Amino acid sequence: MPCNDALQVQAYFDGELDAPAAVEVERHLESCAECALLLADLEETRRLVRDNAAYHRADDDLRERIAGMMDREGGRPEKPARGFIGDRRFLSGLTSGVGATALAAAFIFFLAAPPAPNLLVADVTNAHLRSLMSDHLIDVVSSDHHTVKPWFAGHADVSPPAIDYAKQGFRLIGGRADFVDGHRAAVVVYRHGLHVINVFAWAADGEKLPDAVTRNGYHIVFWKSGDLVFCAVSDTGESELTELVRLMKETKT
Amino acid sequence: MSDRRRRFEAQALPHLDAAYNLARWLARPPLDADDIVQDAMLRAFRAFDSVRGDDVKPWLMSIVRNCFLTAVQSSKAKLNVPIPSDDEIAADDRALMAEHLDPEAAAIQAERSRHLNSVIATLPQDFREVLVLREMEDMSYREIAQITGNPVGTVMSRLARARALLKEKCQLDGERGRHAMQ
């Protein structure tokens, strides 16, 4: 039976642990023969792959094709954003019922086209849903803004204020880095009753912000403050969400 | 030359080999890795003004992966990768042998590589991609999670499974090989 610490040993091997956690694993390795064996296996597998597996490099032909592509693209003015429902491939994905693949395909267009406001709404809705479906809601768990705000500095492009409004009913539960509209957004996560509220923040670049909308039962409010764009998303009541937005706008940082 | 192109050449093109390697490990004929990478680079180029320098590699890799999924979808090809054809293997072997002076050592090395490549190629896509990103590209769990759209926990368990499968298959086949030689 595999030891419960197997994944931790793997994380140690991959250099993913901080110093105290690494010391703990090293201590564990001294007493657990099974994990010591696992570590040796991991090293062997890595050597096998790095020494023997094929690494495919792009050839000159492909490099030339890409240079040609940039020549054709280079002189052109910015194209208008492509509507994603209108994309044939997305529709065929949708109609063939392979929802997951269609969704994955759809993400390309969010990544690759400068999003028009409606795409931005779809993008933050997706980011909100992703955070609820996976266990990737929070990267840094804390109700202390002294912990959350500095964490952003190393993990996102911006470092928005992370203030706890527990007295007003909005408890700060942590922060996360996420991708929105091609930006590495900082996300401040609040809990209001049973509802999760994601507040995304990224650097404003003069884009036009969509009006507040409700999409698939999620309320979405955009606003700008200083040089940051904020977007709050939640399935909490519309008036509650507006209240949090009001509190955040009021707080001087 | 436009500013975007200069930045793209300095920050994105250095990752072209990584992008191509991922595409090759994901896609097999009839899907064409060259087409997938070219499609991905075009999309990346058009959107390039919105990325920061240190994010480029995972960002590019996620676009390659998405383009692969789109290609699969439109060609209705299976996600499972067929084992490479004998011709392809023979060509790989010749290339490997040419690098060595000692023919016997070269033959053993070529056989080991051929075998390992077909083991990796036949892993399910979920396992294959985390293995390629971690062991060949040296990407962090967080970056792999970003690229594959999975939580870090899923990345960790898939990576563990991929490595265990790889070891199991190589070990079993290795033992068979020794028996055959006796």
Report what the structure shows:
Chain A has helices spanning 6-13, 19-31, 33-52, 60-74, 88-95, 99-112, 117-133, 145-155, 238-250, and strands at residues 140-141, 171-180, 183-192, 195-203, 213-215, 218-225, 228-234. Chain A folds into three domains: 6-52, no CATH class; 82-113; 116-250, Phosphorylase Kinase, domain 1 (2-Layer Sandwich). The termini of chain A are far apart. Chain A has a seven-stranded antiparallel β-sheet, sandwiched between helices. Mean pLDDT of chain A is 80; it is low at 75-98 and 108-115. With 253 residues, chain A is an alpha+beta fold. In chain A, 33% of the residues are buried. Chain B has two domains: 3-75, Rna Polymerase Sigma Factor, Chain: A (Orthogonal Bundle), CATH 1.10.1740; 103-181, Arc Repressor Mutant, subunit A. Chain B contains nine helices and no strands. In chain B, helix 2 (16-26) crosses helix 3. The model of chain B is unreliable at 177-182 (pLDDT under 50). The interface between A and B is large, with 58 and 69 residues.
List keywords for this structure.
heterodimer; A: 253 residues; alpha+beta; Phosphorylase Kinase, domain 1; 3 domains; seven-stranded antiparallel sheet; 19% strand; B: 182 residues; mainly alpha; Rna Polymerase Sigma Factor, Chain: A; Arc Repressor Mutant, subunit A; 2 domains; 9 helices; globular
Number of continuous helical runs of chain A: 9
Largest interface: A-B, 58 and 69 residues
Main β-sheet description of chain A: 7 strands, antiparallel
Radius of gyration of chain B: 18 Å
How many individual domains of chain B?
A: 2
CATH topology of the largest domain in chain A: Phosphorylase Kinase, domain 1
SS elements, strand count of chain B? 0
